[in-house]
Amino acid sequence: MTGAQSTATSAVPSGVEAVIPASVDELVEVLAEATAKRRRVAVWGGGTHRAMGHDFVPDLVVSTAGLSGVEVWEPDDLTVVVGAGTPVAQLESQLAGGGQSAVLPEVAGPATVGGAVATGTSGFRRLRYGPTRDRVLEVRAVTGDGRVIKGGGRVVKNVSGYDLPRLYTGSFGSLGVITSVCLKLWPLTESTATVRVSSPGAAESIHRPLAVLQTPGDVRVLVAGTGPEVDDQIRRLGGNASPGLDYPDPVEGTDVWSVRVPPSAAEDAVGRLPAGSDFVAQHGIGEVTFGVPSGYDVAELRRWAERRRGSVVRLRGAPNDDPWGAPPAGLELQRRVVAAFDPGRVLEPGRLPGGI
Amino acid sequence: MALKSDLVAVLDEERVTEDPFALRLYSTDAGQVSGAATIVVFPESTGEVVDVVGAAARNGVPIVARGAGTGLAAGAVPTQGGVVVSTTRMNRIEEVNPADRTAWVGPGVINLDLSAATSVHGLHFAPDPSSQSICTVGGNVANNSGGPHCLAEGSTVGHVLAVEVVLGDGEVLVLGGPAPDPIGLDLRGVMVGSEGTLGIVTRVLVRLLPDPPDVRTLLLAFDTVEDAATTVSGVIAAGVVPAALEMMDQRMATAVENWLHAGLPTDAAALLLAEVVGETAAVEAEAEVIRRVGNASGARSVTTAADEAERALLWKGRKSAFGAVAQTAPDYYLHDTVVPRTRLAETMTEVYEIADRYDLVMMNVFHAGDGNLHPLIAYDSADPEERVRVLAAAEEMVKVCVRNGGTLSGEHGIGLEKRDLMPMIFTREDLDSQARLKECFDPQDLFNPAKVLPQGSRCFDLGGGRPIPDGAWL
Q1: Per-residue pLDDT at B370
Q2: Which of B335, B344, B339 is nearest to B401 (CA)?
Q3: Pick from B150, B185, B210: which residue ends a domain?
Q4: What local confidence, expressed as pLDDT, does residue B473 receive?
Q5: Taking CA atoms, what residue in B is nearest to A323?
Q6: Within 13 Å and on the Cβ side, how many CA atoms surround A11?
Q7: Do A125 and A140 lie in a common domain?
Q8: Alpha carbons A150 and A111: distance in angstroms, whole number
Q9: Do both B98 and B206 map to the same domain?
Q10: Which of A77, A146, A286 sits opposite B465 (nearest CB)?
């Protein structure tokens, strides 16, 4: 999923108690009590992805805003340890000051680092740098029943124990409230450019661009590297370039959905979108986000995507009975894993595929 | 016995063996520990693996999956006895999809064979452990293997989109898929690196990368290890993440040069092998940065491989270094730890000091860019006194790395070798959460029991969340 749609912010539901733990210890108390009293908890970062997954009415909103800030930044190690409640934009701005990036969503609005990890959200540059989940080196979290745990470590390469950082990435709060993460960073390149081309296929003339993005109005290739390298890529892409990385605007529409298919099917997916809808297609990745008026039925598109082992997932819009489509294989195993980390099933109950 | 007849009933007799030589062969890996396989089987399909798992479960014996047996941490060693399931006959590259840059392969496919088979499409499988000419993709998945070129591209987990796995109850699941961000929990990510403790992987959907259009390979020589380590940090700090950045110390360079004659300078204290890939303009600029940083850090020479033959020779020296050690001593103990790369220089100093103190011959060739150390101690296992010193020094080296902010293993795995060191980096709660995860996949503890997690990791009552008092389980 991209940053393209993440500027719509949900408000904390009125009449629901909200707490902002100022420390991990406070969070432990809050969650232990929630489990004891079986209260349904919504975990709140920037509120930009509340429309994802099954809807539920929380008894308690737990904000990560009190667990914010950069704890350790080791530029020469290309790692940063950051509190979950830190806004993505704030982290990236700080890192950019040192010539580095966590490659988190570029158009993040008020989204937080913890939220980006919990929802498994990646930025546009994933074609070059991989998805967010490949850069979460360590995760620290408090489980549903108030256990403080850590997985991974603060080094760029690690096979010590099961990969909890990847398990937490995209878990939508169901395994615990993430309190901090250690992220792998990349150096910002000397030069960048946005090159308009006639079709996504034009990007095949260059080696590993940052992104190949299609909107209703254009196709743009984002390139980065040393000055001469970028100049060379611009030339080979036809020369219609502007300096810097020009990311598409957030997709417009009351409801926004994400089609995820094998990369070669992205062009086909674009052709299947309802006429006139706004969209951003990430070629080479296989994700197309598109906006439609409320009430649009995704069933046919979803059948097509699921036949290709993909999915159509709701990103924004009014609650809907079927935000995920067909659940993944091994639903019982998924249910057991969630129960291992949240035995009282108080964190984001029912939100995951299959209503877990 | 029931186990053998049950297994023969699902596989033909030729693929079920209790031959003493085979049992011995399949009871060890490339490391220090051996176990005692009860029986070894060679399934050829997912269905056969399901039947083998069923037979083992009915007979209450453990299952240890095994690829080529090149592991060093005893991950594939049947320490509790049981059925060793060799995946080497599940070695079909089933389908290569150049448009999506993916391939479905059997777990027994050899790492290098995969890249060779996809090179016709201009694609390759990025993980490249030194054992890549014999190790299997299934073994790479089990260990989340790395290799020199994982500096820029990450370890195996970033190159596996889906796994088909057989669980203890015989259920076959495909976890992950060819589309981005599959919905639900990332159980694929948990399977990768789980060292055979959760189930048996029977098929793998790998992600392939386009071959780079150009490459530059540099060899830098230094008068001190510290200067080489400083260069490693300096290159990254200058904004260049090379495809590979490997260090070799003088002893190792001498051992390699003795048989390979690759022209490695044997009078330098340390060598760096750096490789940058990409567009020509990019590799030229990045090679220049490496040259500049190296010179500023005191490199006595910086040379660039003139052609593919020279480049191949340098890499042959790097990847066959461990074999070259045979000139020095009959055995070696190869370590695998990681420190933040800014702590590399001081860690190396401490590691050398430990080897000297224990009067051991240590050589180093390792993934310096990742901070992934591989101190190699050459010794004679027939000398029990020396063996004791080797193990004591090894543990001290791990402690130094952990104290310097590092971790136990970067790519070889925990297995049995480092299982009991896990509490050095994880709390009881951390280990308990991992033990719970294992239980979710493998409630009967059928798969590779007594590996990865130390005994007593599961230290809380199910569901209660109340910790047992300190020390109660020790």
Answers
A1: 94
A2: B339
A3: B210
A4: 32
A5: B183
A6: 3
A7: yes
A8: 23
A9: yes
A10: A146
A322 in any annotated domain: no
* Cβ-defined contact of A333 to B167 (cutoff 8 Å): yes
Residue A156 and residue A199 share a domain: no
pLDDT given at position B467: 37
* Residues B219, B177 within the same domain: no
- Counting one residue from chain A and one from chain B, the pairs whose CB atoms sit within 8 A come to 265
Q: Does B23 touch chain A (CB under 8 A)?
A: no
The pLDDT, as a whole number, for residue B320 is: 83
Task: With a threshold of 0.90, tell me whether the complex ipTM lies above it.
Answer: yes
Q: What is the pLDDT of residue A343?
A: 96
A50 close to A10: Cβ distance less than 8 angstroms: yes
Residues B5 and A311: their CA atoms lie apart, in Å, by 45
Which pTM value belongs to this model? 0.96
Cα–Cα distance measured from residue A335 to residue B106, given in angstroms and rounded to the nearest whole number: 28
CATH number at residue A68: 3.30.465.10
So what's the pLDDT on residue A13? 82
Looking at the structure, tell me whether residues A182 and A207 fall in a common domain: no
| CB-CB under 8 Å, A159 with B429 | no
The DSSP-derived string for A254-317 is SEEEEEE--GGGHHHHHHTSPTT-EEEEEETTTEEEEEE-TT---HHHHHHHHHTT-EEEEEES
Among chain B residues, CA nearest to A153: B407
The CATH number for B261's domain is 3.30.70.2190
Searching chain A, which residue's CA lies closest to the CA of residue B192?
Answer: A163
B156 to B114, B356, B411: CA distances (angstroms) = 14, 35, 9
Nearest neighbour of A160 by CB, restricted to B150, B167, B407 = B407
Do B206 and B218 lie in a common domain? no
- Quick: pLDDT tens for A70-102: 999 999 999 999 999 999 999 999 999 999 999
pLDDT tens-digit map of A192-217: 999 999 999 999 989 999 999 999 99
Asked if residue B438 belongs to a domain, the reply is: no
Domain of A353, in residue numbers: 1-188+329-356
Of all residues in chain B, the one with the smallest CA distance to A169 is B186
Confidence band, pLDDT 50/70/90 cuts, at residue A254:
very high
Residues B170, B221: one domain? Answer: no
For residues B351 and B336, what is the distance between their CA atoms, to the nearest angstrom?
Answer: 12
For residue A28, tell me if it sits in a domain: yes
- Cβ-Cβ contacts under 8 Å, A327 against chain B: 183-184
**Number of compact structural domains in chain B:** 4
- Whether residues A247 and A172 share a domain: the answer is no
Q: Do B213 and A207 touch (CB under 8 A)?
A: yes
- Same domain for A268 and A195, yes or no, is yes
pLDDT digits (tens, 9 = 90+) for A1-47: 444 444 467 788 888 999 999 999 999 999 999 999 999 999 999 99
Instruction: Identify whether residues A175 and A257 lie together within a single domain.
Output: no
A149 shares its domain with A238: no
Asked if the structure places residue A25 within a domain, the reply is yes
Please answer whether residues B441 and B198 qualify as being in contact, where contact means their C-beta atoms are separated by less than 8 angstroms.
Answer: yes
The per-residue pLDDT for range A127-160, each reduced to its tens digit, is 999 999 999 999 999 999 999 999 999 999 999 9
* Domain-located, residue B441: no
Number of domains in chain A: 2
**Which letter does DSSP use for residue B265 in this model?**
-
For residue A271, the number of C-alpha atoms closer than 13 Å in the C-beta half-sphere is 6
Determine the Cα–Cα distance for residues B204 and B256; give it in Å rounded to an integer: 35
Averaged pLDDT score across all residues of chain B: 93
Residue B112 DSSP SS3: helix
Q: In CATH, what number is assigned to the domain containing residue B378?
A: 3.30.70.2740
Whether residue B441 lies within 8 A of chain A, CB to CB, comes out as: yes
Strand B16-17 vs strand A287-292: parallel, antiparallel, or unpaired? unpaired
Residue B453 placed within a domain = no
Do both A180 and A196 map to the same domain? no
Low-confidence ranges of chain B (pLDDT < 50): 461-474
